């Protein structure tokens, strides 16, 4: 069952740049997918389309059975909550401790306090940060900060976990820790989509690899490697 489907999607920016051309792809529930391609190949545009931060110029995008251009404004927050996002630069709240950074996501959806007190420690335990709940982000290593970001992305149980260059600021050891966590998350049923330049990881993991070049999908391999030299 596709949880994400792009049907003949194109995106031309107001500048005239054609960032995505006639893209069709399906990602099924429970899949683990890498999206690779050199800078400017349309990966960020694809993510923004998926989050409905921008609109396609042509074609249709379906997420969880809903066609995004048909979503009402009032349905957009719910749509975005279904997609947990992790960024290269972590984007944590600098003046809040680890617990509060993760709890914040729950407060936004008005989860009851007792549920927050149960879920936040539980998700932080899953990413191995039980001992760091009262610590500020700056007191953590890059790998630990990314694990906080991952916990925050997961705490509201999204159906899709989207990671935009999640290992971009990490050394190889921490990069592998994050990838192993993402694989665990996927094993529990969450669809995981990772945009990355990390050739070593993509080649080693033997997952589905979608390669973009200049806005065009140039390959889609079930057990792929980072084939495109960009
Ligand atoms: P990434 O997510 O791969 O780090 P960015 O979103 O920072 O990429 O930008 C990717 C490419 O898109 C870059 O070449 C950048 O110059 C270009 N770009 C980003 N925003 C704009 C914009 N508003 N106008 C024109 N080009 C842009
Ligand atoms: P990637 O994330 O793979 O680096 P992008 O999706 O950011 O690629 O960019 C694809 C193309 O669209 C690039 O040529 C980029 O310069 C252009 N682009 C990206 N964002 C904008 C924007 N906001 N306005 C105009 N052009 C953009």
TrEMBL record:
Family: Belongs to the ABC transporter superfamily.
Superkingdom of source: Bacteria
Record's protein name: Cell division ATP-binding protein FtsE
MF terms in GO: ATP binding; ATP hydrolysis activity; transmembrane transporter activity
Keyword Membrane: yes
Cellular compartments annotated: Cell membrane
Native source species: Anaeromicropila herbilytica
Membrane topology qualifier: Peripheral membrane protein
GO terms for biological process, alphabetical: cell division
Primary location: membrane
GO cellular component labels: plasma membrane
Domain ABC transporter, residue spans: 4-230
Classification via InterPro entries: AAA+_ATPase, ABC_transporter-like_ATP-bd, ABC_transporter-like_CS, ABC_transpr_LolD-like, Cell_div_FtsE, P-loop_NTPase
Phylogenetic placement of the source organism: Bacteria, Bacillati, Bacillota, Clostridia, Lachnospirales
Known role: Part of the ABC transporter FtsEX involved in cellular division.
Keywords: ATP-binding, Cell cycle, Cell division, Cell membrane, Membrane, Nucleotide-binding
Pfam families per UniProt: ABC_tran (PF00005)
Keyword ATP-binding (UniProt): yes
SMART domains on file: AAA (SM00382)
Subunit description: Homodimer. Forms a membrane-associated complex with FtsX.
């Amino acid at each position: 069952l596709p949880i994400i489907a792009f049907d003949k999607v194109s995106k031309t920016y107001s500048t005239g740049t054609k960032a995505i051309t006639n893209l069709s792809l399906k990602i099924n529930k429970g899949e683990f997918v890498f999206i690779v391609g050199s800078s400017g190949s349309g990966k960020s545009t694809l993510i923004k389309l998926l989050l409905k931060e921008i609109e396609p110029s042509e074609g249709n995008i379906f997420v969880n059975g809903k066609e995004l251009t048909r979503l009402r404004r009032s349905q957009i927050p719910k749509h975005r909550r279904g997609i947990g996002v992790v960024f290269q630069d972590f984007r944590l709240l600098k003046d809040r401790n680890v617990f509060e950074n993760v709890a914040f996501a729950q407060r936004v959806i008005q989860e009851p306090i007792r549920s927050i007190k149960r879920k936040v420690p539980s998700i932080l335990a899953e990413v191995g940060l039980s001992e760091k709940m009262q610590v500020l982000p700056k007191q953590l290593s890059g790998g630990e900060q990314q694990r906080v970001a991952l916990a925050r992305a997961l705490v509201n149980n999204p159906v899709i976990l989207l990671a935009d260059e999640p290992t971009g600021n990490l050394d190889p050891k921490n990069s592998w820790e994050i990838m192993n966590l993402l694989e665990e998350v996927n094993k529990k049923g969450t669809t995981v989509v990772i945009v990355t330049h990390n050739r070593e990881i993509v080649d080693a993991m033997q997952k589905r690899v979608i390669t973009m070049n200049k806005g065009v999908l140039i390959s889609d391999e079930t057990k792929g490697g980072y084939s495109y030299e960009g």
